[in-house]
Structures are given as C-alpha cells and as structure tokens.
Specification:
The structure is a single chain. The chain has 465 residues and is an alpha+beta fold. The protein folds into two domains: 291 residues, Zn peptidases (Aminopeptidase, 3-Layer(aba) Sandwich), CATH 3.40.630; 122 residues, Alpha-Beta Plaits (2-Layer Sandwich), CATH 3.30.70. It is 32% helix and 23% strand. The strands form five sheets. The protein has a six-stranded mixed β-sheet. A four-stranded antiparallel β-sheet has the order 11-13-9-14. The protein has a three-stranded antiparallel β-sheet with strand order 4-5-18. A hairpin with a 2-residue loop joins strand 4 and strand 5. Helix 1 crosses helix 13. It is globular. The two termini are 15 Å apart.
C-alpha cells in the first residue's frame, strides 16, 4: 500500500511531541505502582489518578473514569482507567489497552540507577515500568495527541481506552471487569500494547502467546526441625526432597519432562543460538537448554521455571534439617493446550514423583490460556502497513515466550473483535528484571505507528474487507 498522505505531517507531530511524552512517562515511572500483595496499594491508586488526568487532558472522550471489579466475593481488583468516545458515521471503534501497574523492583543493589527514578543513559530510559507497560500507556496517549493535532478533534473514529491496574498480579479481576463493562469496551479492533519488537530497527506483530500456570508448592517431610548432625543421613529433610522432586521436571538437556505438557509445530524466523546467548546474557561457558529451533523452544514448547524459594538464607543457616520448603513454580504453556489441562499434568507429575513420601501442598494457583491471533482480518494488514510506514521496515510476525492470559478473556467476551498485539519493548528492555529500560527510538516509532493506524481507521467504514 502507498504511504498515507498525512504521514509526513504525523511524523512531524510525533517528533515535536516526543519530549512531552517522555516527560509524562517519567512522571508515571516515579509512582511505584506495584500491584502485588504486600505492597502499598495506594501507589496503584495514585498511578490510576495520574493516568486519568492524562486522558482527561486529551479532551476527546465523553467519559473518563476509574473503575474496579471484584476478584471474588470479598476482594476488589486494583483500579483501572476506562474512557470512551462513540464512533460516528459508520466508522469503526478501536480499543487501546495497556497496564499501569508494574513488577516489584527486586534487589535495588542490582540497579545502576534507582528503579523508580527515570534515568536516561544513551538512547534508553531506565526505570521500573519504563517499558512494561507505562510506555504502552504513553504510546497510546501520545499517538492520540498527534492524531487529534493532525485531523482535528471532530473525528468520527470510535475510541475506547482501558488501562488495567493489576496485569502484573495475574489480571485477577479482568474477566469480571470486561463482563461488567462490556458495552463500554465493545470495539471492532483491540490494540494490546504489551509485547515487544524483533529488534530496535524492526517492528513485530505478535501472533502467538504461550499460556501460563503458576502456583506455590510446599514440600514437607518433618513435623519440626531437627539437628542435622544427629539425624542427617537417616531422616529426609524437606530441602533434599524438594531438590529431588524439582529435578524431575526437566530432562538432561533442560527441556521439560512432564508427561501431558504438549508442544506445537510451527515455522519460525531464523534465530541462532549465538543471538540467544547475547540477548539472554548467558555467562561464558554456559550453554543453551532444550532442543529444536531456538524460537520453537521460546514460543511453541512448554517451559518451567522455579522463580522463588522460601528457605533460610546462607547467613541465617543453622545445622538443622528443614521440615518444609516452599517454592514458586512458573510454567509456560504452548499454544494449543489449555491451562487447566497443563495444571492437571503438572500436579499429577509432582504427586507421582514426590520422594521419600514427602507431603505436598499446592496453593495460589493461577492459570492463563495461550493464544493464537487470527491473521486473516483486515486490521492485521492495516497495522503491518502502519508499522512499515513508521519504521521503514516490514513487520515480522512473531510468537512470544511470555504470557498475556487475559487475551483469551477478550476473545470470549468480544468474539468479533480483531486483536492486534503490539508493543514498545525490544530484546534489551529487560522487562521484570533490574535495569528495565525503553529504547527511545522504538518508543518514537511505536507512537508514529499508532498515529498512522488511528488516522487510517478514521477513514474506513466499520465493515470493510
């Protein structure tokens, strides 16, 4: 397709607005909006208020509100921001999604600058949430700013914004939220800005997502701690049992060895192990794990990671046999398998392989289904062409090893909507890790992509093949 006739004007507008967008993003990053239990929920509320002010400042929505939905009968979810402007004259409606909550910072000593103090070094902005996903919020906001500046505020395109406040805590109220707000959220096209790009010069449209199953596993062998010198070698302690049990989850090559967890066969772009070594920061001499094409391992095969363990620190270690050990298990599920079936396979495996008769307790189970995007809709072609114009490079269709579990909920409630999964991250963004960062060039091009997309959709009929 030819470039949009307003591309140069949009590019100039996005360029001129970039300093303000970066400044606004910095203000959001300064709010430590961690949605996990044990962190101050007031910070998530402050973040929601700050984002609401940004949307109100656009002066294009009929309504902008902070809303919550129940997780269960007793608990309410974290605050989300919801805004809507109805479509006119037969134009489509586009829903823009991102989330304003963030991961915990982890060990602040591992950060080169304070996690909640936005810091520019070179061409990157560092800080927790600078990429995942407050940059997604600001890409939407900045794109709307340029769109309105170029086409005016009397446009016909329908706009809906949904900025969630608990994605990093499992989107536990998400299904209830979209059901309660179905009429407000209904759209023809849904853009989820929470993924990454092939590299800093090449855009990506995510078409496959692994699902996830996470839970706490407690392994218990003794009624109380005992002296390791007196009973070690005869009484099985929980650490030994946990190590033996967890080792059964993987084959010698590091691939998953749980019967019942499935893989998917699909073509993947070229990506060799040397690129994995660089992007995943393997230490010298450390080799990759698994088998098959590298991207097949990342996108289309299951993976299991132990992301946390409750046990005495080395400094506090005493000569005792531990009665119980608790670990956090995080499994990624290949497209084509339900999270429920995957959890059943994991639980069955663990109970069948518990050594020494160890007692197992599983709690805090979360499940999210994998997802494959239907790429036959017209919106995919429009989005990829907008990327080409903004980036000067063709978009690559990619899978992603991470999970966005709520996508399957969107499909259930809005089966006719076309879903586009985009993002502002790149392989060096280190989302969820210390020194998370946003490449400012990628941010610029992501904003321009969406500005072109909005302008193009504003000129289309609602039903268009």
């Amino acid at each position: 397709m030819p470039d949009h006739p307003l591309l140069d004007v949009l590019r100039e507008s996005v360029q001129a607005g970039l300093p303000v967008a970066i400044s606004d993003l910095g203000r959001l990053v300064r709010i430590p909006s961690v949605s996990w239990d044990g962190f101050d929920s007031e910070n998530v509320a402050r973040s929601a208020e700050a984002v609401k002010e940004l949307l109100e400042g656009l002066n294009v929505f009929d309504s902008v509100a902070i809303a919550r939905a129940p997780i269960d009968g007793e608990r309410m979810g974290q605050p989300a921001i919801l805004a809507r402007r109805p479509a006119r004259n037969g134009k489509p409606t586009i829903l823009l999604y991102a989330h304003h909550d963030v991961q915990p910072p982890g060990n602040e000593e591992d950060w080169e600058s304070a996690p909640f103090e936005p810091t520019v070094r070179g061409d990157r902005l560092y800080g927790r949430g600078a990429a995942d996903d407050k940059a997604g919020i600001m890409a939407h906001v900045a794109a709307i700013r340029s769109f309105v500046e170029v086409v005016g505020d009397d446009f016909d395109l329908g706009l809906v914004v949904f900025f969630e406040g608990e994605e990093e805590f499992g989107s536990r109220s998400f299904a209830n939220f979209i059901t309660e707000n179905r009429d407000t959220l209904e759209a023809d096209v849904i853009v989820v800005a929470d993924s990454d790009n092939w590299d800093v010069n090449t855009p990506a449209l995510t078409v496959g997502l692994r699902g996830n199953v996470t839970f706490k596993l407690t392994v218990s062998t003794l009624a109380h701690a005992s002296h390791s010198g007196m009973f070690g070698g005869a009484a099985p302690d929980a650490m030994l049992a946990a190590i033996r049990l967890l080792s059964t989850l993987h084959a010698p090559d590091g691939s998953v060895a749980v019967e019942g967890l499935t893989s998917r066969t699909a073509d993947t772009p070229a990506y060799d192990e040397s690129r994995l070594v660089e992007e995943a920061a393997l230490l010298p001499g450390v080799t990759p794990i698994g088998h098959g094409d590298v991207l097949s391992r990342l996108w289309d095969q299951p993976a299991i990671t132990i992301t946390g363990i409750d046990a005495p620190t080395v400094q506090n270690a005493s000569n005792t046999l531990l009665p119980s050990v608790t670990v956090k298990v995080s499994a990624r599920i290949a497209p084509g398998q339900s999270a429920t079936d995957a959890y059943t396979a994991l639980e069955t495996h663990l109970r069948q392989h518990a050594p020494f008769g160890a007692q197992l307790t599983i709690s805090d189970v979360d499940r999210g289904n994998p997802f494959l995007v239907d790429t036959d809709g017209w919106a995919v072609d429009v989005a990829k062409d907008a990327m080409r114009q903004a980036w000067g490079a063709d978009a690559i269709e990619t899978g992603i090893g991470g999970s966005i579990p709520f996508i399957s909920d969107l499909v259930t409630v809005f089966p006719d909507a076309q879903i586009l999964i985009t993002g502002v991250e790149d392989p060096d963004s280190r989302a969820h890790s210390p020194n998370e960062s946003l490449h400012l060039g990628v941010f610029h091009r992501a904003i321009l992509t969406e500005a072109v997309l909005l302008t193009t959709l504003n000129e289309r009929g609602r039903i268009d093949s």
